[in-house]
Write a structure and sequence with these properties.
- By secondary structure, the protein is α+β, with helices and mostly antiparallel strands.
- It has two domains: 103 residues, Immunoglobulin-like (Sandwich), CATH 2.60.40; 325 residues, 3-Layer(aba) Sandwich (Aminopeptidase).
- The chain is 26% helix and 27% strand.
- The protein is built from nine helices and 21 strands.
- The strands form five sheets. It has an eight-stranded mixed beta sheet, with helices on both faces. A five-stranded antiparallel beta sheet has the order 1-17-16-19-20, with no helix packed on it. Strands 18-15-14-21 form a four-stranded mixed beta sheet, with no helix packed on it.
- A hairpin with an 8-residue loop joins strand 19 and strand 20.
């Protein structure tokens, strides 16, 4: 076990002699995080609110009001950022014609997602990372496409996050591709996300992770009156739709109910987010989404992709899906004055740092295996190099079976390791580590020969 660096609590190196803990950050990512501006975020939201309504069924012709004007403005911002990208960022409005469905589409409409693609610099690396927010919004009646609906937090906050990430990241190079998207039709039934996820499945996109941001800019709740801008939730599913047959049997036999790819992504978001963003705790929620609602990550999950939802810790339902009005002394409506732009800045940093760390990192190690054919108190792991990226080494991850997060990270330059930890008592995973220290997503170890 020579030349092994033991790193506790995932991102820390401890100097026991003086009792200090040093957080190791990639200087390039830290610089990007410092460029996230709450003033920029506020300006994006005020502009989106100025369109009056962004209901998917609203005006598509006007230059100043409705969903058409809103998506044209988002496209103009992406194109503005593209001018500083040396040709790597390109943007389109990806459209489809929808017929009335007898549900939440009562007339023929053009549905349009505003999509900006930051092409990766490694032509052999086909990995794609998607960050999403939905541009459309609603009043108390989802079919009301005429009345004013500010939609400041739901979900101009998610789109503002997407825009700010694109503004900053388009000036940099990443080996993998990042897609920034402002989706339409969420309130009408996840229509835009279904359109995009369906195309991704048909065209065999190599999507490694989807970050869906929906309602990420307010810090307080109604009823309980909790105010808190130091926590944010990440929702993730336990089982992939692909977990059938032998895969499902392995999950049951090995106790891997909390080790789906989406759960690994949630753990990653927590670790990297808390590494770079001060005064923000990432709270993992073991559900695909909240009760009675579903977000734009769901269509990706339904097609076997890895996806999570990021949303604020405490929701205020007087400012969601409500006509603007004063009733019994309570102000209703999704208005900008009820947002916390410092909180939105932190949540945007959370997205940016994770996207950058993943897009800079090598791809996942392959064939992560654990020897289980003999009884021993050691655990013997082996794996193969990732398909893409320059690898400096690997982190072997360890956690107790009851722990939600990885508790130890051990660095090695080898592709195998013998550990004095019983395989009966722990879960193990492996990450590939790039030259700048950026880690891939973790791959859980499976019994060799299975």
């Amino acid at each position: 076990m020579k030349n092994i660096l033991l790193v506790l609590a995932a991102t820390f190196i401890t100097k026991s002699s003086i009792g200090q803990t040093i957080i190791i950050r990639d200087a390039a990512i830290e610089k990007m995080a410092n460029e996230v501006s709450k003033d920029s975020l506020e300006s994006y939201i005020n502009k989106m609110v100025s369109f009056g309504t962004r209901n998917t069924l609203s005006n598509q012709i006007s230059n100043i009001r409705g969903i058409g004007a809103a998506r044209n403005w988002v496209l103009s911002k992406f194109n503005q950022f593209a001018a500083s990208s040396d040709g790597r960022l390109s943007a389109i409005i990806d459209t489809i014609t929808l017929q009335p469905d007898g549900k939440r589409v009562d007339r023929k409409i053009i549905l349009g997602n505003v999509v900006a693609t930051l092409k990766g610099t490694d032509v052999q690396d086909k990995r794609i990372f998607i960050v999403s927010g939905h541009l459309d919004n609603m009043r108390s009646n989802v079919m009301d496409s005429v009345g004013n609906a500010p939609g400041a937090n739901d979900d101009a906050s998610g789109v503002a996050n997407v825009l700010e990430c694109a503004r900053i990241m388009s000036k940099r190079n990443f080996p993998a591709t990042i897609i920034f998207v402002a989706v339409s039709g969420e309130e009408q039934g996840l229509l835009g996300a279904n359109f995009m996820a369906s195309n991704a499945k048909k065209e065999h996109w190599d999507i490694e992770a989807v970050f869906n941001n929906d309602i990420i800019g307010s810090n307080n709740s109604n009823e309980t009156n909790i105010t808190n801008n130091t926590q944010v939730r990440v929702f993730s599913e336990a089982f992939s739709i692909l977990d059938t047959g032998k895969a499902a049997l392995n999950i049951r036999n090995l106790g891997l109910e909390n080790d789906s790819k989406s759960r690994q992504l949630a753990r990653y978001i927590k670790e990297i987010g808390e590494r770079y963003v001060d005064n923000l705790e990432v709270v993992m929620v073991y559900r695909p989404d909240r009760f009675l609602r579903g977000g734009d990550h769901i269509p990706y999950l339904q097609r076997g992709f890895t996806a999570v939802r990021i949303t604020e810790m405490n929701e205020n339902y007087t400012h969601q899906h409500q006509d603007v009005r004063l009733e019994n002394g309570i102000q209703y409506g999704d208005l900008p004055e009820y947002m916390d732009f410092e909180y939105l800045r932190k949540n945007t940093c959370l997205n940016l740092c994770n996207l950058a760390n993943l897009a800079k990192a090598p791809s996942e190690p392959l064939e992560v295996k654990m020897e289980t054919r003999k009884l021993t108190n050691f655990s013997n792991l082996s794996w193969k190099s990732p398909k893409h990226g320059n690898v400096k080494g690997y982190f072997v991850l360890i956690r107790e079976t009851t722990s939600p997060i990885w508790q130890k990270k051990i660095f090695t330059t080898e592709t195998k390791m013998d550990l004095p930890f019983s395989k009966d008592n722990y879960f193990f995973g492996v990450q590939a580590v790039g030259e700048d220290g950026n880690e891939s997503l973790a791959v859980i170890s499976l019994p060799a020969g299975r």
